[in-house]
Design goal:
about 70 residues
């Protein structure tokens, strides 16, 4: 990967890395808790805002009865 040349490129690369780390941690957390977890638990455990948590959970989890469960691959 090339080094970012501008401040905008640097910030975008940092944001992408942070989202990737949060996604990885969220997936790991959900896979170790098959009984499901609520949004506040995931948010505080991983250390992210509610907006970011919802954004990540939309891609990796299914919601049922107010809890999030890791999306199963078909």
């Amino acid at each position: 990967m090339l080094m970012p040349q501008t401040v905008k490129e640097y910030r975008q690369a940092q944001n992408t890395k942070e989202l990737s780390d949060c996604r990885r941690l969220t997936t790991k957390l959900l896979s170790t808790n098959p009984q499901g977890l609520t949004l506040p638990v995931i948010q505080t455990t991983v250390g992210m805002s509610a907006k970011t948590a919802k954004r990540i959970l939309a891609g990796v989890a299914d919601e049922k009865d107010g809890k999030f469960y890791l999306r199963q691959k078909n």
